[in-house]
Amino acid sequence: MLTAISDTHGTDDHRLTGRTLDAVHEADHVLHAGDFMTEGVLDAIDAECAKLTGVVGNNDRPAVQDRLPDVATVSWEGLTIVIVHGHEHTETALGMLARQENADIVVVGHSHNPTLTDFGGWTLVNPGSYADPRRYQPAHAELDVVAGDVRVRLRSPDGTPISTTTVER
Question: Any coiled-coil ranges, and where (predicted)?
Fold first, then answer.
């Protein structure tokens, strides 16, 4: 399983609770789409993960910016996944990035709005913010292989399913 989270907006701990914490522990790989805020939060999240790939968000302090890239690409279960915070990307720019990286999935944060969108060739996954949802519901994303394809599910920290889509492999 792969778990995607974003927009922690913490100062000293990971703020992971409930199903979100369980999903981070169960995942072979965790993706974080930026806005850890501090190096302490980055380290706290990293300590909970088997493997973490994160990117810089627009609110990350210099110590975090020094450790993370603006864009990361990972291969998982035969898919190419690009991670970016999104504060510098319009929908058009994300589409161009997906084509440039030959991505099947683009994981993006920034808006705090948990969203799954199929763009006919690639899928946008915004896991929302599990810790600082603002006007949206708190969420994270879980990706797993079901019947040969990848199921992407948005869930709330209490485990309630929010939305699901399937990405063909």
Answer: none
